[in-house]
Write a structure and sequence with these properties.
Helices cover 57% and strands 4% of the residues. The protein contains 27 helices and seven strands. The longest helix has 37 residues. It is elongated.
Length: 816
């Protein structure tokens, strides 16, 4: 340990019978009490019997000599794997294909450091020694510890850090050239016309916007996640680069005969409204994601909204100033990146219309828009996109929920084999606890009879309903009935079991193992104290207060298997302030208690989600019928709870985003028609993207939902500038669509489509599957679909059903 001390397995293992007891290790060797001598002695008594071990495997619950070192029966389903699932009589020694060993660790707060240190050393020993031993015997060993997933995820993050960084660098490099390009083909003038320094300044503004958002939200106590770190920069780059390209492109379209400050002002007045419109709609759309209540989406929405807002402020202030200075540098014939060097051999061409790249793209946009004007092409486009939309709706119904654990881990992780073997070899599912709150145990209350399953209990009691569910495991996903402390306690105090509840004449507890003749059965009617006389089958509150601590300390044995220590002494909420040691018992209301059962073996994400849903459905039915406070819990529920409400989260996120886009677009454009058209195209991108998720095997989870939320902002950035350019242009719908596409298509295509495409292609080099699926595939789908909708579907819709021109004329709109 860090303090220089050592921790052994005996120090950190879970001991159900207290510090002096044995570790509750689950192993086949427990049938011989983890004792090599006991095993060899048992083997020597059956020299010619190959199946001599099977006796304990078949009589594990009744034969005391087969009990574990911690004095409890060892269910063979916990230590054997691979045997037939539906076979009635299993011969474990012949039918099993794997052995399972589980070291149960006490990871309480005071023991956590020792447990973590032991787990780290355990993994090291397995990798350095045990794998060699099993490999030499032609055996395969898969292994894990409770901290393994976190360790491997951290390793994965570090492994892909370079890929993500390289992706950003590639986008940065491209962006520095796309802002201005070279206005001359002469090599001698090339470095005077590039805008690399301006591009780097723009990149710095994007980085600063992300850092500012992180700083503001960190001050407010909002923690960032790996998902935030990886997604937000992509979003900020896409929006920031697009705005910078639009501003630079609009400046190039201004009259070069005007004074530079006036040209910059005209450019900002022309492009500013559409940039403000896009930023406001994106800000509100992302902010709406906070309403979902889903932690991953809420955090992402806050970061995205604040980043977009700060990025916008930087674009219309700092970047405009940088653009003016860079334009002044070009005018003064100073070299890019090194403005102290001035060109003296002649005045460069003051073309002012941008580089040849811009001219080529504008020409291509005009030619493409002319193709879209043909009626046959328009009909084909509409039918194609309608087919895509309805096909996507059909595919959405088949998108799977979940996030496969093997996908989230590095491909070379030792956990890949472990999770694969868990799915194929285990024949018992994870434990499930049915937690009951505020159970009234006083005689005048029906809560005990509503809960228990012994004599006198209601036929539809909680434990009877759980037992009924266990009889149909294929639909309930409950494999066993729940172990009930209340049933065993009632049986334990029953005087017919005269070796269970016993006491001395001074009314102190007598252990079951004691042979002292002074021990008497508690409620046999011979005690002079009325407290130890049962009236009916249910104890009074005073009797419960007296005997519950005895029951919880009694060690199970052959004479009395109903004793509670080990099995139940952790099933009630403890309290040092309660005289019984258990919260609420002395007042007659058990604050919290749990009843342990098992799920069926769960292999797929759908199995885990359905098991959780069915358990909650069962407890909901119990609570409604009986008026009890009951809920289920299993260790995996915290990871899968989100999927029960994923449809709601997605619907709320998309609906509020759509309303935000509609409202803000109408406010800025002054046309409900144009706003509605924008919203329809943006949401069509999202629907088609969800359909593609099914085709590309992408599951629906917090990561994909976050990407879809980001897709709304990116798709809006693709479309809104073209729509606004259309609404402020004169002429027929066809001509206005052609003008909008030729003027705004170039900066949008350069600023988002190509920039994102370059960054996404770099992500294909990632070595982890989660990056391949949820970043490379989803981002590539987003870029392709957004480009198709913005440059194909949107112009056709504008030509056919485009809104009329704005009834008022904005200053400098003629420059668009």
């Amino acid at each position: 340990l860090d303090n220089g001390k050592n921790a052994t397995l005996d120090d950190i293992c879970f001991k159900p019978f207290g510090p002096t007891g044995a570790c509750a290790t689950q192993s086949i060797l427990q049938y011989w009490q983890m004792n090599r001598t006991a095993f060899e002695d048992a083997a020597s008594t059956h020299p010619n019997d190959k199946d001599w071990m099977e006796f304990c495997f078949q009589h594990w619950i009744t034969e005391e000599s087969c009990f574990s070192a911690f004095k409890a029966p060892m269910d063979p389903k916990l230590v054997f794997g691979g045997f037939p699932r539906d076979q009635g009589n299993v011969v474990y020694s012949n039918d099993s294909t794997s052995l399972i060993v589980v070291y149960l660790v006490d990871n309480s707060e005071e023991n956590l450091d020792a447990a973590l240190a032991f787990e780290k050393q355990f993994i090291s020993i397995v990798q350095e020694k045990l794998l060699k031993i099993t490999g030499a015997s032609n055996l395969r060993l898969s292994y894990s510890s409770e901290s393994s997933v976190q360790s491997e995820l951290e390793r994965e993050s570090n492994a892909d850090a370079m890929t993500v960084a390289f992706s950003f660098i590639a986008m940065f490099v491209y962006m520095t050239f796309v802002l201005g390009g070279a206005s001359s083909c002469k090599p001698s003038l090339m470095c005077f016309r590039t805008r690399i320094l301006l591009g780097l300044g723009g990149v710095l503004l994007v980085i600063l916007s992300v850092l500012c958002a992180a700083g503001i939200l960190s001050t407010l106590g909002v923690k960032s996640t790996l998902l935030i770190v990886e997604v937000i920069p992509f979003l900020a780059l896409a929006i920031g680069v697009d705005n910078m390209c639009i501003l630079a492109h609009t400046l190039q379209c201004q009259d070069v005969n005007l004074a530079l400050p006036i040209r910059v002002g005209n450019a900002l007045s022309s492009a500013g409204p559409s940039i403000t419109l896009a930023a406001t709609a994106e800000f509100l759309a992302f902010l709406a994601g906070v309403l979902t209540g889903m932690p991953a989406c809420t955090t992402f929405a806050l970061f995205a909204a604040i980043t977009v807002l700060i990025d916008y402020i930087f674009q219309v202030t700092a970047f405009v100033a940088m653009l003016l200075l860079d334009e002044q540098r070009i005018k003064n014939r100073r070299m890019d990146c090194m403005p102290c060097i001035k060109e003296v051999r002649g005045s460069p061409s003051a073309d002012g219309k941008g580089g040849p790249e811009s001219g080529v793209l504008e020409s291509l946009a005009i030619s493409f828009s002319q193709v879209l004007q043909k009626q046959a092409v328009q009909i084909s486009v509409l039918l194609t996109f309608l087919a895509m939309f309805f096909s996507a709706i059909g595919c959405i119904q088949h998108v799977e929920l979940g996030l496969e654990q093997t996908v989230a881990l590095p491909r070379d992780s030792y956990l890949q084999d472990y999770f694969g073997d868990i799915a194929t070899q285990l024949r018992v599912g994870p434990p499930v606890y049915f937690v009951q709150k505020h159970m009234n145990v006083q005689p005048d209350s029906d809560d005990v009879n509503k809960t228990c399953a012994t004599a006198g209990c209601m036929s539809n009691s909680m434990l009877n309903q759980i037992q009924n569910a266990a009889e149909i495991p294929s639909t309930s996903y409950i494999a066993t009935s729940a172990a009930s402390w209340i049933d065993d306690y009632i049986s334990w105090i029953n005087p017919s079991l005269n070796r269970c509840c016993r006491m001395y004449s001074n009314e102190t507890f007598c252990p079951t193992a004691s042979t002292d003749k002074a021990c008497e059965t508690c409620f046999d009617g011979n005690s002079p104290d009325p407290l130890f006389h049962l009236h009916g089958s249910r104890p009074t509150l005073a009797q419960i207060n007296k005997t519950i601590p005895w029951f919880m300390e009694a060690i199970p044995s052959k004479e009395c298997a109903k004793a509670g220590r080990g099995a139940y002494n952790t099933e009630l909420e403890r309290s040092d302030s309660d005289p019984t040691g258990y919260a609420g018992v002395s007042e007659g209301v058990v604050k919290a208690a749990r009843y342990r059962g098992y799920h069926t073996p769960l292999a797929t994400q759908n199995d885990f989600i359905t098991a959780l849903r069915e358990a909650k459905k069962l407890t909901g039915k119990i609570s409604e019928e009986l008026g009890l406070e009951v809920f289920p819990y299993s260790v995996f529920y915290v990871f899968f709870e989100q999927y029960l409400e994923m449809d709601y989260y997605a619907t709320l996120t998309f609906s509020v985003a759509a309303i935000s886009i509609l409202g803000v677009s109408y406010l800025f454009l002054g046309s409900l028609w144009a706003a509605g058209l924008t919203m329809v195209v943006v949401m069509s991108v999202v629907v088609d993207m969800m359909g593609c998720m099914y085709l590309f095997g992408i599951q629906f989870n917090a990561v994909s939902l976050t990407n879809l939320a980001m897709a709304i902002g990116i798709a809006l950035e693709f479309c809104i500038h073209i729509v606004r350019a259309f609404t402020v242009s004169d002429g027929s719908n066809t001509f206005r669509a052609q003008v909008a596409l030729s003027r705004m298509g170039t900066p949008v295509f350069n600023g988002i489509a190509l920039t994102k495409l370059i960054g996404v292609l770099v992500l294909s080099l990632s070595q982890t599957e989660i990056f391949q699926i949820y970043y490379f595939r989803m981002y590539l789908i987003l870029v392709i679909l957004s480009t198709l909708h913005a440059f194909v579907l949107l112009p056709v819709l504008l030509m056919i059903i485009g809104p009329p021109r704005l009834p008022y004329k904005l200053a400098h709109d003629m420059h668009l």
